[in-house]
Amino acid sequence: MNPAVPVPEGASTAASKAAGTSLRDLRPGDVGVVRAVRSGTDLRRRLLELGFVSGTRVRVVRLAPFRDPMEVELHGYHLSLRRAEAEAILVERP
Question: Using H for helix, E for strand and C for coil, what is the string for the chain?
């Protein structure tokens, strides 16, 4: 499976694992490279506009209490994401 191809919602977990791991699964200090954004059109468009495009390096800075939201760093700026939003971003650990 090509990791750059978005995995449709409702796809098997095996297909998701082949494409990478979710940004939601990373811990503070972990780094990942964006491989795909798999979500409905509105959220997908918003995440792409924020810079979550294929090949972008993302670092998890910290997690808020109860692990939601999470702060990430990409393109030199910090951004807070809900865990549900982070789950839509597939990353590969370098």
Answer: CCCCCCCCCCCCHHHHHHHCEEHHHCCCCCEEEEEEECCCHHHHHHHHHCCCCCCCEEEEEEECHHHCCEEEEECCEEEEECHHHHHCEEEECC
- pTM here? 0.75
41-84 pLDDT, tens digit per residue, is 899 999 999 999 999 999 999 999 988 899 999 999 999 999 99
Domains in the chain (CATH in brackets) are 33-92 (2.30.30.90)
